[in-house]
Amino acid sequence: VSNFKIIESTLREGEQFANAFFTTEKKIEIAKALDEFGVDYIELTSPAASEQSRQDCEAICKLGLKAKILTHIRCHMDDARIAVQTGVDGVDVVIGTSSYLMEHSHGKDMTYITNTAIEVIQFVKSHGIEIRFSSEDSFRSNLVDLLSIYSTVDKIGVNRVGIADTVGCAAPRQVYDLVRTLRGVVGCDIETHFHNDTGCAIANAYCALEAGATHIDTSVLGIGERNGITPLGGLISRMIVADRDYVMSKYKPEKLKDIEELVADAVEVNIPFNNYITGFCAFTHKAGIHAKAILNNPSTYEILNPADFGLSRYVHFASRLTGWNAIKVRAAQLNIDMTDAQYKECTAKIKLLADLRPIAVDDADSIIRAFHRSIKLGKP
Ligand code: HCA
Ligand code: CU
């Protein structure tokens, strides 16, 4: 599962998030931050969506970022004509292929879809830029139809084909099977896009890579339609465990928190408490047994190293679950030194209070200080 590329869609899928409204300045700030992080592609809202969207797309193309700039359009010549004039490095084309979308959304059949796809692809290619063709709602589409259209567009030279779990219904093994099958049918790259309605978006992205996909769509904090897609941070956490060297050589995980704060602020949400990597307790260890082992060797209870993300771990000690090793470390931070037997006794006092009510760091500190004073006075 090495060698994957990230198509960062905060400025496209993310703009479809309920709270999102990005000014031109904010889009530029986000694009620059993503570029510094090292994402391979930045996908932007269709220039056909609105006049401001078109101008913003042009403005971002002019920034001269290292990341390739893509825009995302419907499989339609009207959109394609506008897209190729914006200065983008590539165009992501999408059309619904499930019976739901064919009947209730655009109302076109497979023959029409195939013919339009060919026309759009050849037109975009003639402008010398990258082209990706994707089906929307791929997991509820007819497999024979899908493979046949992907094989057709592969033959006429698309750079990538895309699979999209538009409704978030797919499970990891289903993803593996579809991507594996597609891998046997096309020679081009395979991009995948997973919505997170049932909590599978990261696992699905990982399974897609295992099955031979090359590109994963993400957004910062996973923002997008409904509850969103594969989050950038969550994908990075999964991939750093799978192949740390690759992730560290290509991306700058230490910038993740700043990017998340930038986007969270822009769309007026908080970073979730249990977020991958950046949730407030992502590197907090609480139970005495965990604290002791972590203090000996962090790898015992940590698969991610907080230092990789410019973060630090925290050993929680103000609770009834604490243990004397954690209290010993806290005492050292307070410049207090005692014997092991005394730490154990002091810990018992902290647990006594913590059994009655939730205690704060200050409460625990006061107990440690008072205990230390009392032993110096000779009456523990
Ligand atoms: C949508 C479109 C899309 C497209 C994905 C893609 C989806 O907003 O419905 O182009 O890969 O989820 O199908 O985001
Ligand atoms: Cu989507």
Q: What report would you give on this structure?
A:
- There is one protein chain.
- This protein is an alpha/beta fold and 380 residues long.
- It is 45% helix and 13% strand.
- It contains 15 helices and 10 strands.
- The strands form 2 sheets. It has an 8-stranded parallel β-barrel, surrounded by 7 helices. A two-stranded parallel sheet has the order 9-10.
- Bound molecules: 3-hydroxy-3-carboxy-adipic acid (HCA) and copper (II) ion.
- Residues 13, 166, 193, 195, 224-225, 229 line the site of copper (II) ion.
Helices and strands in order:
Elements: E1 5-8, H1 24-37, E2 41-44, H2 51-61, E3 68-74, H3 77-83, E4 90-96, H4 99-104, H5 110-125, E5 130-136, H6 143-155, E6 160-165, H7 172-183, E7 189-194, H8 201-210, E8 215-218, H9 232-242, H10 244-250, H11 256-266, E9 284-285, H12 288-296, E10 314-315, H13 324-333, H14 340-356, H15 361-376
Parallel strand pairs: 1-2, 1-8, 2-3, 3-4, 4-5, 5-6, 6-7, 7-8, 9-10
3-hydroxy-3-carboxy-adipic acid binds next to strand 4, strand 5 and strand 6.
